[in-house]
């Protein structure tokens, strides 16, 4: 690729930035593995030129498999300074259900060993009167075990809380596929016997399941369960630079929440995935069962008060930052990479947020008009953050976006910037003083 970048065609983006659409007089080339109009049009609107992955590209919106191939040693492909790509090669450390849990458990243990106050534990009294030990500051994932390897530890935990419901999720699948709820060990054993028959010849880590304590007291609106989808952009893991998009949304179940045992298999009550709910009789294709995050905030301020709502959103930011810190040391922090993660969060009726999972390729298709507007803005805004001020992809750039370029993204953490470090410190202090008063 040419080494001089002098000739520029100037464009103005939605974020008011003057950017270039050319590298050395030729158009910036993008390629993508998705023929999603939102992605392709967002790139074209910048005056960029679409090429195929085997041509000279500057920005690649790839799927996770092709990204891994690009970074594979066998491939021998070396990215140049004018190439950036939308995944970190080992993103699975954060997005695979079993690895996310493993990394968070390791992170908490390390903090505990270092006697870091964040690793502090406390005894909690459950409504049943039982006392259990929990992390004071980092108890943000439901208790989870990996099957088959953790089966015996799970059984121990199950016996302590025989009234609990558990949710089983296959590590290698998405969109609600293969998920089911159990409240009896006998049901789990039956499933295990049957799935062993099916899996015994091809058991790989992809066939693992996680079994998590089911959050059976979700916050309900209109009697229905929902989860929150939040977009988090990571520009770098070391130093950690992460941004949260203000316009997330809630995804609602189509049927009213019901904890009755006879409804345990009813996925229209328990799973909030749009891919599941859109098949329900009561699915509304106009709003798609979605409510914007800003509307959720207004609803909570009205029903629960401003302070608790603010606290909830601080807690959400806290859990995102610490989930990222939990994987930062194991991520291959290639400077050509950035990644937009879809965080799935459930809020319980005590307004405690729980991290359910993280997606590396959050859907860029739109189910409603509002969805389309949101995702167009998201992709355009995201490009403004990951590109240097002149708009030309540059892996050498120090990844410090201007306030204007941030648009609807807010800084979650930037270990490079004094301001962002102070923000993080303030967040930590606010969290600690809150925990002490609880
Ligand atoms: N521990 C839990 N407690 C309560 N509900 C849960 C729990 N875990 C998952 N769920 C529900 O099940 C849904 C699917 O779970 P999850 O997102 O982990 O699986 P998935 O099939 O991989 O989804 P995706 O397509 O988002 O990757 C969640 O959106 C949530 O509604």
UniProtKB/TrEMBL annotation:
<keyword id="KW-0969">Cilium</keyword>
<dbReference type="GO" id="GO:0036064">
    <property type="term" value="C:ciliary basal body"/>
</dbReference>
<keyword id="KW-0493">Microtubule</keyword>
<dbReference type="Pfam" id="PF03133">
    <property type="entry name" value="TTL"/>
</dbReference>
<dbReference type="GO" id="GO:0005524">
    <property type="term" value="F:ATP binding"/>
</dbReference>
<keyword id="KW-0206">Cytoskeleton</keyword>
<comment type="subunit">
    <text>Part of the neuronal tubulin polyglutamylase complex which contains TPGS1, TPGS2, TTLL1, LRRC49 and NICN1. Interacts with PCM1, CSTPP1 and LRRC49.</text>
</comment>
<keyword id="KW-0966">Cell projection</keyword>
<dbReference type="InterPro" id="IPR004344">
    <property type="entry name" value="TTL/TTLL_fam"/>
</dbReference>
<keyword id="KW-0067">ATP-binding</keyword>
<dbReference type="InterPro" id="IPR011761">
    <property type="entry name" value="ATP-grasp"/>
</dbReference>
<keyword id="KW-0436">Ligase</keyword>
<comment type="similarity">
    <text>Belongs to the tubulin polyglutamylase family.</text>
</comment>
<keyword id="KW-0963">Cytoplasm</keyword>
<dbReference type="GO" id="GO:0046872">
    <property type="term" value="F:metal ion binding"/>
</dbReference>
<feature type="domain" description="ATP-grasp">
    <location>
        <begin position="344"/>
        <end position="387"/>
    </location>
</feature>
<keyword id="KW-0547">Nucleotide-binding</keyword>
<dbReference type="GO" id="GO:0000226">
    <property type="term" value="P:microtubule cytoskeleton organization"/>
</dbReference>
<dbReference type="GO" id="GO:0005874">
    <property type="term" value="C:microtubule"/>
</dbReference>
<protein>
    <recommendedName>
        <fullName>Polyglutamylase complex subunit TTLL1</fullName>
    </recommendedName>
</protein>
<dbReference type="GO" id="GO:0070740">
    <property type="term" value="F:tubulin-glutamic acid ligase activity"/>
</dbReference>
<dbReference type="GO" id="GO:0015631">
    <property type="term" value="F:tubulin binding"/>
</dbReference>
């Amino acid at each position: 690729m040419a080494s001089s970048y002098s000739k520029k065609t100037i464009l103005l983006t939605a974020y008011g930035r003057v950017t270039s659409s050319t590298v050395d007089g030729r158009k910036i080339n993008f390629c993508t593995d998705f023929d999603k109009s939102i992605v392709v049009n967002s790139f074209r609107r910048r005056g960029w030129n679409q090429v195929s992955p085997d041509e000279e590209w500057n920005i690649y919106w790839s799927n996770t498999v092709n990204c891994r191939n690009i970074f594979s040693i066998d491939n021998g492909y070396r990215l140049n300074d004018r190439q950036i790509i939308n995944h970190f090669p080992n993103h699975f450390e954060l997005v695979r259900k079993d690895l996310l849990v493993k990394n968070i458990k390791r992170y908490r243990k390390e903090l505990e060993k270092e006697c870091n106050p964040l690793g502090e534990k406390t005894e909690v009294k459950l409504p049943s009167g039982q006392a259990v030990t929990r992390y004071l500051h980092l108890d943000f994932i439901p208790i989870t075990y990996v099957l088959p390897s953790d089966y015996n530890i799970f059984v121990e935990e199950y016996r302590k809380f025989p009234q609990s419901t558990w949710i089983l999720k296959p590590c290698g699948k998405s969109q609600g596929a293969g998920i089911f709820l159990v409240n009896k060990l006998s049901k789990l054993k039956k499933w295990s016997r049957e799935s062993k028959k099916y899996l015994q010849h091809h058991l790989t880590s992809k066939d693992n399941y996680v079994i998590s304590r089911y959050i059976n007291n979700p916050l309900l609106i209109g009697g229905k369960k929902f989860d929150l989808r939040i977009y988090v952009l990571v520009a770098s893991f070391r130093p950690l630079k992460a941004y949260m998009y203000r316009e997330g949304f809630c995804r609602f179940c189509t049927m009213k929440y019901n904890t009755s045992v006879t409804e345990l298999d009813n996925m229209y009550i328990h799973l909030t995935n749009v891919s599941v709910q859109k098949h329900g009789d009561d699915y509304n294709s106009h709003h798609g069962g979605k409510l914007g995050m800003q509307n959720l905030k207004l609803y909570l301020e009205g029903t629960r008060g401003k302070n608790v709502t603010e606290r909830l959103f601080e807690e959400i930011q806290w859990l995102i930052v610490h989930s990222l810190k939990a994987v930062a040391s194991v991520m291959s922090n290639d400077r050509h990479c950035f990644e937009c993660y879809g965080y799935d969060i459930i809020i319980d009726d005590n307004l405690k947020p729980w991290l359910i999972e993280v997606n590396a390729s959050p859907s860029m298709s739109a189910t409603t008009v509002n969805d389309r507007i949101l995702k167009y803005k998201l992709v355009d805004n995201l490009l403004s953050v990951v590109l240097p001020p002149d708009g030309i992809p540059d892996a050498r750039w120090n990844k410090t976006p201007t306030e204007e370029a941030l648009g609807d993204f807010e800084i979650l953490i930037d270990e490079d910037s004094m301001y962002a470090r102070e923000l993080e410190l303030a967040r930590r202090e606010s969290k600690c003083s809150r925990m002490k008063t609880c």
